[in-house]
Design goal:
heterodimer; A: about 375 residues; mainly alpha; MetI-like fold; 15 helices; about 0% strand; B: about 400 residues; alpha+beta; four-stranded antiparallel sheet; two-stranded antiparallel sheet; 12 helices; AA_ABC_transptr_permease_3TM (chain A); transmembrane (chain A); ArtM/GltK/GlnP/TcyL/YhdX-like (chain A)
Chain lengths: ~375, ~400
């Protein structure tokens, strides 16, 4: 009787493992997919090398004048480099740049503890940033106090203006949106209908018309002689507009909270505001973090629209730089630069929201 | 026992200001009073301010002569027409760019959404890159990029890029042949209408027959044949009553043909690509929302992959996709107002821009513009809600 000795396992067919196997299952699984892959590779071959050449290989980085770029076929980053200060600070006087740097540096310093796990006063710090910090930034930017030279808002511009518009929009639209969402779900008929009309009105019109309204109509609404800053008017328009979108996001979160949670609040004898603030809103807001961040991203992109009413945000100031007779014909470089800045901010925000969502996922995940 | 229950002493009534009904009434009255006061102040201020600045009120200005030309009009227009007419011209241009944009964005979005889920690694990566890049760059920047950096620097008409002697691309726009309908072309249109009605009847008949007997009839092929074949036949019989007006290069400009002006082209490209990225995400989420069990069940029942997709997956995915699609259509329509940044004569540009500047009647002009967008928004969402209700899942 022979003893059965099992044959050692054969390795899998070479075509289904390793690089070949990966290629076969991911790129060439069928004739159609083969065709698609080859087409895609051809497309990449057509577009990517020229773009890389233009951005990195053939581009010019050194020099201070237009002549530095005369010999190259690639991008002329000198243009961006020369204008960098203006793109960042607008027409702010150069001697006062430190105030903007200080303002944003302070913000970063204040925000760092929010990312430290062991820091226990995150809520208080966040409230401080939302409520007190705006005044700090206002004083630093406009001056006039503590011996700082006053700088008119018409001189603000560039990336710092974009960030200010977005920051004010966020800080104002979140609380306003929450109030509107609560109003829309209220049992009081008048409160409810006022909120519905408000939300639907702002969501039904384009932001441009809102900005037009705030620039041409707002002065008519105010008592004679009140001079309202153009930037402030734009900020009011943006905040009202975004709060309507924010309200709908928050409403979605409120609707997702089971009725038992509301009843539990009532059973404990909590007042409306107590049960909202301690039970409902924290859960609802956590549920809709992705929606809130999406609204922030939309708001950040929408700040570019202020160029239409003559404010110089990042895009507007880059657009204006194209008109400089010394630097005609470098619009692509400018747009690519602006696009990458906006892209980094927006993409970063969306990734941060994903991380936050994952971290806060406590109960509702299945 | 029962008696004792009845004798429970009544709870002390809460003070008047603690009763929920009283409170809610109080707050609502306060709100109404606040809004009323706010509205009244604004109204008074506006009246006073307008009087001070000598601005007239009312919509009488709509009958005045406009006195400016418009770059592109779908209906006849020149300087002698009224401000009312400029409103109409702008409105039509807005509707044109919005409907074309919705058409292209939907196509791009569906292709890219499906591509992002493709098993093909390279295709799905390309779709991801497309979505992540264009979603995160402001639309206004994209519009300006296409207009100022791509289309404006194109060569003039004399050096235009020529394709086949029919298409001319230059900084004046894309010129192409326009159709000239000859005598008797109406018969072709009648034939098309008849064919469409006939194929609807065929489809109905086929469905009835399948329900009654189980026999299938390929009504798709029949109706395609009808819709294409019948008009074609009439067209040939009537002696081909259609000719093309080709664009011709003249000394300074092009003559004849149709033109897509660069303003429209830039706006259209940017709107379609930008909104397409959002629609792609909606499509992806819709398809992912259909559980894989549905596919397996369909296969287990013996449905072929194409039928599975058509009868099982897509109807369920659409339920998730349609509401998101609706808001993207609304966004696209509202975003078309960015036209004003590059000078495409849409409603905002010609009416809230030029007309307002010339007449100074800010309140009326802005109110009319906003009313138009509100009406468009409400119409689209009403239609989409109706459609959504039709296809929605009916539970028990």
């Amino acid at each position: 009787m022979s003893v059965h000795t099992p044959h050692p396992d054969l390795p899998p067919p070479t075509l289904s493992v390793g690089v070949l196997g990966w290629l076969r299952s991911n790129l060439f699984s069928s004739p159609l997919h083969t065709l698609l892959s080859l087409f895609a590779i051809y497309l990449i071959y057509l577009t990517v090398p020229p773009i890389i050449n233009w951005v990195f290989v053939d581009s010019t980085w050194v020099g201070d004048t237009r002549e530095a770029c005369s010999a190259t076929t690639g991008a002329c980053w000198v243009f961006v480099k020369v204008r960098m200060n203006q793109f960042m600070y607008g027409f702010f006087p150069e001697s006062e740049y430190w105030r903007i740097n200080l303002a944003f540096g302070l913000l970063i310093l204040l925000a760092i503890p929010l990312f430290i796990k062991k820091f226990n006063h995150k809520g208080k710090l966040a409230l401080f940033i939302l409520l007190v910090y705006p005044f700090v930034i206002f004083v630093l930017f406009s001056g006039g106090y503590f011996g700082l030279v006053p700088v008119e808002t018409s001189k603000w511009g560039g990336l710092s203006l974009t960030l200010i518009l977005a920051g004010v929009g966020i800080a104002a639209s979140l609380p306003l949106g929450i109030v509107l969402a609560l109003g829309r779900r209220s049992k009081m008929p008048i409160v409810k209908s006022v909120s519905v009309v408000f939300i639907e009105f702002w969501r039904g019109v384009p932001l441009i018309t809102v900005l037009f309204m705030s620039s041409v109509m707002l002065p008519l609404f105010l008592p004679e002689g009140t001079n309202f800053d153009k930037l402030l008017r734009a900020m009011i328009g943006i905040a009202l507009f975004q709060s309507a979108y924010m309200a709908e996001v928050v409403r979605g979160g409120l609707a997702a909270i089971p009725k038992g949670q509301y009843e539990a609040g009532e059973a404990l004898g909590l007042s409306y505001w107590q049960s909202m603030g301690l039970i409902i809103l924290p859960q609802a807001l956590k549920l809709v973090i992705p929606g809130i961040v999406n609204t922030f991203i939309a708001l950040f992109k929408d700040t570019t629209l202020v160029l239409i009413i003559g404010l110089f945000d990042l895009l507007a100031i880059i657009q204006q730089a194209f008109a400089d007779p010394d630097w005609l014909g470098f619009s692509i470089e400018g747009y690519v630069f602006a696009a990458s800045i906006f892209w980094i901010f927006c993409f970063g925000m969306s990734r941060y929201s994903m991380a936050l969502e994952k971290k806060l996922h406590t109960g509702h995940a299945r | 026992m029962a008696d004792e229950h009845r004798k429970v002493p009544e709870l002390a009534k809460p003070a008047l200001w603690r009763r929920p009904a009283v409170r809610s009434l109080f707050f609502q009255i306060l709100l109404v009073a606040g809004i009323g006061f706010f509205g009244y102040t604004i109204f008074q201020n506006t009246l006073h301010n307008m009087e001070q600045r000598g601005i007239s009120t009312g919509f009488g200005f709509l009958d005045n002569e406009a006195g400016f030309g418009i770059l592109m009009t779908l209906i006849p227009f020149d300087e002698t027409y009224t401000y009312g007419r400029t409103f109409l011209v702008g409105l039509l241009n807005t509707l044109l760019v919005a409907s074309l944009g919705i058409f292209f964005a939907t196509i791009i979005g569906f292709i890219m959404g499906v591509a992002r889920l493709s098993r093909n690694w390279i295709i799905s990566r390309l779709a991801t890159i497309y979505i992540e890049v264009f979603r995160n760059i402001p639309l206004l920047l994209q519009i300006m990029f296409w207009y100022f950096a791509v289309l404006r620097p194109l060569p003039g008409p004399r050096q235009s890029l020529i394709l086949n002697d029919t298409f001319y691309l230059s900084n004046r726009g894309l010129y192409m042949p326009s159709p000239v309908f000859g005598e008797g072309f109406w018969m072709v249109m009648v034939g098309l209408a008849v064919a469409i009605v006939a194929s609807i009847l065929v489809i109905r008949w086929a469905r009835k027959r399948q329900e009654a007997t189980g026999e299938q009839f390929h009504s798709i092929y029949a109706s395609i044949g009808l819709v294409i074949g019948l008009p074609m036949l009439i067209f040939l019989l009537a002696g081909s009553p259609l000719s093309w007006d080709f664009p011709v290069l003249q000394r300074f400009n092009m003559a004849g043909g149709m033109v897509i002006i660069p303003e429209l082209a830039a706006l259209l490209v940017a709107l379609s690509i930008y909104t397409g990225a959002f629609i792609a995400e909606a499509v992806r989420s819709g398809i992912l929302a259909v559980s894989h069990g549905q596919t397996e069940a369909a296969h287990a029942l013996g449905l072929r992959p194409a039928s599975t997709l058509r009868l099982v997956i897509i109807p369920q995915a659409l339920r998730v996709i349609i509401p998101q699609l609706t808001s993207q259509y609304l966004n696209l329509t509202k975003n078309s107002s960015l036209a004003t940044a590059i000078g495409y004569p849409d409603l905002v540009a010609v009416f809230a821009g030029t007309t307002l500047n010339q007449t100074g009647q800010a309140v009326e002009v802005i109110a009319m513009t906003m009313a138009v967008y509100l009406a468009i928004s409400l119409t689209i969402s009403l239609f989409m809600n109706w459609y959504n209700k039709r296809i929605q899942l009916v539970e028990r």
